[in-house]
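Form 7-S
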Amino acid sequence: MHARHLLLNRSSMPSLTAPGPTPADIAMFEAATLRVPDHMSLTPFRVLHFHGDNRHQLGSIFLAAAQAEAMGDVAEKRAAELPLRAPSVFVVVTDYKSEEKVPRQEQFASAACAAYAIVQTAFVQELGAIWRTGPYAESSTVKNALQIGDNDIVGFIYVGTPTTTTPIKPAKTISVFSEPSL
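Output:
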């Protein structure tokens, strides 16, 4: 796939099914994450991969969070099933390093780039992906269960085969670039 096509046409795929990524696809995801901007080569992130039956473990964690944090009846009913919406869920978490030249904000940005690399690489490999956050990314119950300590969940990247062709969103007509008038 041409890089220009990738950059200008990638779209989130919310409806995913099997087959999921192969071991070769996953190796490519990892290789891509290790090429993201990373000041001082700290690799300030980790990626937890839930697939197959172990997606139920993540669902149990979500359910425990929904109950412990009073997210409501609807959240409790849906929680355990959320990770089953795709064959693979990659949980990208920060792994902050103590380095005065690289503040946490920059390390978080590097981890976010790693998450984006997984999404982009899935698209290149003709898979679908969607990056989700929401209350489970902020949940202390989820963070404790995943044993990530004082780190952050950057996102849950759901990956699989798209069930339908997702139309490419039209290009935005706004401009986000400007010349500063200081």
